[in-house]
Every structure is written in structure tokens, then in C-alpha cells.
Amino acid sequence: MKITSGKNPKIEGLIIKDLLQLKTYRKTLISFIVIFSITPILQYTSGGGEGIFNMLPIMITLGFGMFSIASFNYDEAAKADRYIKSLPISSKEIVLSKYILTICATILGGILGILLAFIISSIFAKEYDIEIIVQALGGILGMSIVEAIQIPCIYRFGAEKARMQIFLVMVILFVIGALLVGGLIYWVQRLDIETMKIEALMPLIFAGFTALVYKVSYNISYKIYEKKEF
């Protein structure tokens, strides 16, 4: 999967189209950010620990990811793909534009979440925890997996019908993920592996796995979209 939107005006045009459609969600997204920025402050002032602020990047990342996925609902409601497919734009470019939008929105949410968490924790707790970055990376990875499941399901079943299938798949993946994490923790403790060495590699592990998840998802989505009739 090559991301070349900077040199491809067709992909840029599709992304701008989605962003213009999503303008109606602007107030909702801002409200989401404000609410989840205030919540940890209230919890901390009520006696909660500093770790409360670590959840902020995850929630902001989740909000931005959901924001980008909403573009599919607009396209389905307007039957936009019938028109887009009639234009001199390839299926790869159409699908790739969606992935670029969701990837950029997810990363932007993670960065904004980190900045807000650092600022808020510095003001109220007078310190910040470096674990905020780890939490943000986890949020980006988690949202990437959700998007990687959602997008192919949406292309296959449609934005509305895909919701139940996505829910079932997410439950299965949650169980599998919990078992894998539990197994990893067990073997780390069993083999007496230094956790500091693992934590140092976490950003690279997160980045590599996220890229792999998106690539597999993109290939599946492209094959579905290429064969789909509108």
C-alpha cells in the first residue's frame, strides 16, 4: 500500500470531499474533546490518582477514529459511490483515500490526546507521567485494529448492516487479545525478561503491527470494492 496522496490530486479531492461532509460533526467532536478533558480533572480533584490522565489520549484517539469512519455513512446515504465510480478514478485510489483519512485522523487524535494529557496533568497534578505516551500508542493501535475490521465490513455489508458483524468480530478479537496479552505477561515473568527492554521496543512494535494491520485491511477492502456493483 503506497500512500501518495501528496502527488495525487484525485485522492486529495476525495479526502477533501469527506472532510467537507464531516464538517457537520465538528461541534460534536469538539464537545467530545471537552467532555473527556474535563472528566479526568473532576476525577483527580475528587481524590483520583495521577494515572487518571493517562486515559485521555485513548479516548481522544477513539473520538477522532469514529469521526473519520462517519464518512462512510454520508457516502451510503447519498449513494456517492455510484457517481465516484463513474469518474476517472481507480478503485485503489477510492479505497486508499478512506484509509489515509482514517490513519491521519487516528494519529492526529493520538497526538492531540498526548498534548492535552500533558498540559492538564502538568497544571493540576504539577507533574506528568511518561506512560501517557505508551497509553496513546496503545490507543492508536487499538483504534487501528477497530478501523481495520470496520472498513472491510462496511465495504462488504454497508455502513448500517455492518454494525452487528463488527460487534461480533470485536468480541471475538477482544477474547483473543486478552488471551494473547495474558500469555505474553506469563512468559515475560516466567523467563524473567527485563520489562524495561520490552518497553523500549514498544513504539517500534506498535508502529510495525499497526502498519501490518492496515495493509492487510486495505488489501481486503480493495478486493471487495473492486468486485462490488453500485
Structural class: mainly alpha
Biggest beta sheet summary: none
Task: Determine the strand fraction and express it as a percent band.
Answer: under 5%
Q: What gross morphology would you assign?
A: globular
What do the pLDDT scores average to? Answer: 80
Q: Kindly state the number of beta strands.
A: 0
Q: Topology as H/E string?
A: HHHHHHHH
Summarize the amount of helix as a percent range: over 70%
Tally of contiguous helical segments? 8
Gyration radius from CA atoms, angstroms: 19 Å
Give the distance, in angstroms, between the N- and C-terminal Cα atoms: 24 Å
Provide the low-confidence segments as ranges. 1-6
TL;DR?
The chain is mainly α. The chain has helices at residues 9-21, 26-45, 56-78, 80-84, 91-124, 131-157, 162-190, 195-227.
Structure notes:
The structure is a single chain. This protein is mainly alpha-helical and 230 residues long. Helices cover 80% and strands 0% of the residues. It contains 8 helices and no strands. It has helices spanning 9-21, 26-45, 56-78, 80-84, 91-124, 131-157, 162-190, 195-227. Helix 6 (131-157) runs antiparallel to helix 7 (162-190). The model is unreliable at 1-6 (pLDDT under 50).
Keywords:
8 helices, mainly alpha, 230 residues
